[in-house]
Amino acid sequence: MASAAAPSDKKQYGSVRALLAATDDVALLPVANPMLVAIGVMLASLLQILDTTIANVAIPHMQASLGATSDEISWVLTSYIVAVAIAMPMTGWLADRIGSRRLFIMSVVGFILSSMLCGMAQNVTQMVLFRALQGATGAFIGPLSQAAMIDTNKPSRQSQMMAVWGMGIMAGPILGPIIGGYLTENWNWRAVFYVNVPLGVISLAIMMATLPSRKLVQRKFDGIGFALVALALTSLQLLLDRGGHIDWFQSTEAWIYTFLCVSAAWIAVIHFVTAREPLFNRHLFADPNYVFALFFSLVIGVVMFATMALLPPMLQRLFGYGVIDTGMTLMPRGVGTLMTMQFSGWILRRGFDPRILIFSGFLIAAFSLWEMASWSLQTDYYHIAVSGFIQGIGMGLIFIPLNASAFATLPPMLRTDGSSLLNLSRSIGSSVGISIVTFELAHNLQVSHSDLAAHVTSSFTDLIDVSTVDRFQTLGEAGLSYIDAMVNQQAAMIAYIDDFYMMVWLSLAAAPLVIFMRKANLSRVAAPGGATPPADVPH
Q1: How far lies 33's CA from each of 37, 214, 247, 338, 506, in Å?
Q2: Sign of CA dihedral 520, 526, 530, 532
Q3: How far apart are CA 165 and CA 294, in angstroms?
Q4: In this predicted model, what pLDDT tens digit does every residue of 410-434 receive, in sequence order?
Q5: pLDDT tens, 500-518?
Q6: CATH assignment of 26-218, among 1.20.1250.20, 3.40.50.300, 3.40.50.620, 2.60.40.1120
Q7: What's the CA dihedral at 125, 127, 132, 138 to 10 degrees?
Q8: Could you tell me the end-to-end alpha-carbon distance of the chain, in angstroms, rounded to an integer?
Q9: What is the C-alpha to C-alpha distance for residues 90 and 107, in angstroms, rounded to an integer?
Q10: Of 190, 77, 178, 184, which Cα lies nearest the Cα of 135?
């Protein structure tokens, strides 16, 4: 006799055998113009990615305009990140329940309206609430865009479409500070949010005209699982974002966040193993390639986004670059990424082993970080740009093969859930990475400053005799301030170098784990008939 769960499983996931029988090179959701769909989907995705970093540059102007304290204005960023983390795990269930097309369009509409509200905010309370709404509505855009790019293209073109999608994901964090700085300097901080409106409307119009939808699925919502995941992620994001303000584990607040995160995560794992219909399908975690893709997404989030978080302030504060100059210096990184993403898509379609590309990408990224660790305050634009270009090459070699391998063996009905988890993993990795490198930067700056200051003696410089500086009163104080600034500058450079070394070792440690992935033939990525489900998927 069939188990009680069997009918609901069949109702939920349909017939996998029927999908496996469709071996032709045909898209799961055929459309008349896949490229037009891609433009609409990618425009929405790019706007959502941009908003994770575009507002950072405008924070000082926003603080002055809204009359907020530094602690209050930090919630403008925190509320967005926390809202994204809470909402994103619901993507798969909502897409099944109300339809992927309807959810995508509603998400873009909500993102446009919340962006307008952010631009009209009159006080910090309104801004925090509107940013949380913007994060909650925009959280679905990333996973749905990735699933749509796969579903609307035939298998032989899916690796190429993943390259196009990856360009937007990689370009967003690079372009965000540049666009945000330009808009803030030439108009005001409100333009940072208003720019989403016309571009969002264009994306919305394209999707309403062309975007298809999957069939609705009657899927029970796992309220307990969602509540546990939401509590764990919220606690983690609050700890990471608030840690620097509350002196980390010297405060009770940090320990409360840690306790809630660990407890909720532990109970969530037990719940997902034992629940009849968990929030995330357990068959996702039966695919080793997908599980390793989740891990590598964490590493990419740390290495890529932490590096992007370090470089702009380093170039502006230590090297004296302006906002636009900083953007132009970082641009070669994006160029390298775009080039190798296209190359990766092209070579994967010819049956090349994706594990070799992923392994090579980590080694190239580690080499570029090692080059960065040799920088000094005299490093010129050329060396900074070349190191960034090399790192972009490495990231491009990792990103596309990794995403393609993750989806190659997943049944199509698991793509939306799988995409939401991959995006969530990368988001968590970026939050963790940025918090770690920021903490290490501040700590190593203090240590290096103390070490360097110990060597400031009378023989340190011919400009000032520090043993008799008190004779010169105001001029002596100015001389000491100048020396202290020099020591601070050198200590900061040493602290940045220590962070680069840390990421070198992380990249090298991750690279050998590629051997545990299974070789996937990506000449027909994630074909509807080529996706082999786990043995226990109901069919």
Answers
A1: 7, 17, 53, 23, 42
A2: positive
A3: 18
A4: 777 787 788 888 888 888 887 788 7
A5: 999 999 999 989 988 888 8
A6: 1.20.1250.20
A7: 170
A8: 15
A9: 13
A10: 77
Q: Which fold has domain 283-434+503-532?
A: Growth Hormone; Chain: A; (1.20.1250)
pLDDT for 471 equals: 56
| Domain range list for the chain | 26-218, 223-278, 283-434+503-532
Q: Which amino acid is at 463?
A: L
Low-confidence stretches of the chain (pLDDT beneath 50): 1-23, 525-539
Q: Would you put residue 376 in left (φ > 0), alpha (ψ -120 to 50) or beta?
A: beta
Distances (CA, A) of 387 to 123, 143, 370, 392: 42, 31, 9, 9
Q: How far apart are CA 366 and CA 515, in angstroms?
A: 18
Q: Residue 180's closest CA among 42, 68, 53?
A: 53
- Share in percent of the chain as helix, strand, coil (round to 5): 75, 0, 25
Q: Please give the full DSSP string across 297-309, using - where no structure is assigned.
A: HHHHIIIIIHHHH
Within 8 A by CB and 6+ apart from 433, the residues are 301, 302, 303, 305, 306, 309
